[in-house]
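To whoever is covering the structure queue this week,

Two jobs came back overnight. Logging them here so there's a record in the thread.

Job A:
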Amino acid sequence: MARIDDIPPVRADGLQLVENRAFQERFWRAQRLAWIAFGALMLAALLGLTGSGGPLHSRVLHFAGASVEMPRIARWEGNDEITVTLRDADTLVVGNEFFDGVGLQRIQPEPETVLQGDRQEMRFSGPGKVVLQIRPEHFGLVRFDLGIGGHSRPVRLLVLP
């Protein structure tokens, strides 16, 4: 610990400073790394990897006779949409694991019939677009099965806080 009586030497430029050059260089290096990390985080947000828009925010799943556009990453207690385009198929099957972590706010148009069991099976009146408005209730990884027209596949949705 420096005492008050310790007077630093006068530098060639006339300043009388106590400086630890090694510490200063380590600090500058840490500062540059922090700027790079912040820049990477900003780029990830602009690309949509933090939810709520961007080119990487959503993905399209193709089924025989239908396609599903859904978010890759959603925000906890934030509203989002899953859009199902039915061409040949008329049945949408969603595993019950989906409903454990995500609240279904609205289905437009409403299905003609809903069958329950270990999954939710919704029948619609034919080709067209179906919009499911969702709101994640828990953050984490939601794994569920999604099926259309007899074809099913596992799907993951990452919910960020």
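Job B:
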Amino acid sequence: MKNLTFESFYSIKRIRKELYTALAATCFLAILLGGVYPLIVWGLAQGLFPEKANGSLVLRNGQVAGSSLIGQAFSGAAYIHPRPSAAGEGYDGVQSGGSNRGPTSRKLAETVQERVKRYREENGLAADAPVPADAVTASGSGLDPHISRENAFLQAHRVAVARGLTEDAVRRKIESATENRELGFLGEPRVNVLLLNLALDGKL
């Protein structure tokens, strides 16, 4: 058996030292980035903006009615309907995403035509009345909680009839629920469907 030379012994010592350094760095970074940093961020978030940090939950009679950041299905005539969703069976956070159908997809074209026809029938619109794109197409996430003001206003008559209200009263609720452009110039004014429907129910 060959005796260990000074060079080979020194090489083993060096490898051990480098392994120790690597393991120590890994443990340190794991504790820092996997424990200390998340705790600091969590603490700051809870202290500075707890509502947003906890999911922007909306409470009704002490119970969680939903999140103002995630859309949910409303189908009754008395409610403003949300944007269509392709996330799972609809508004499924676990399966967030779109249909991945492109503009040349025959299936997408048929689906949109079907939705346009249903939207016009539901809201008592003429057969050739323009329909907002967000009323018949899903968002990329399938979880968009907002619709356009135009979409909401076109549903106002149906909601007013179902609730025994005047259309002006419903339109005022829509105006009150309208959120302005981000920073004053990004995007378009929009309406949060959950908050509007809770307001119509007299819960907000």
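Note for Job B: The two ends are 85 Å apart (CA to CA).

Please reply-all if you pick these up so we don't duplicate work.
Q.
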